Description:
The protein is α+β, with helices and mostly antiparallel strands. It contains three helices and six strands. It has a single domain, classed as Thiol Ester Dehydrase, Chain A. The longest helix has 16 residues. The C terminus is likely disordered.
Amino acid sequence: MTHSFTTRVYYEDTDLAGIVYYANYLKFIERARTEWVRELGIDQARMKAEAGTVFAVRRIEADYLRPALFDDLLTVLTRVESLRPARLGLVQDVLRGETRLFAARVELVALGPTGRPQRLPQALAELAASGAARPDP
């Protein structure tokens, strides 16, 4: 299962050269992950308030392939690549039409109230697993 999120490039997203500033791709994929989790029916604010659980990016690998420009309409695709008890591996691509501009592998970890890793919330693990994740040993 692939989640799709659409966003537009605003002037504030660009640098002096008129292309998307490299760090803003991380914002685009963060927004897409937030919307994906929301569409799965998971309320992150409630999860934090009730269980003290939050998500953090543990690792990210990013490839900048082509520049996005002011006013481009972008699509961010997110899919689950791997699933472990406390970690979720995602692949995220940013496209302009059919052209892939940015590719990332993101590893998320669930953290408890003390900041230590803990198991993913069961609802998320089940939903992610049903979304074509390949469980890791």
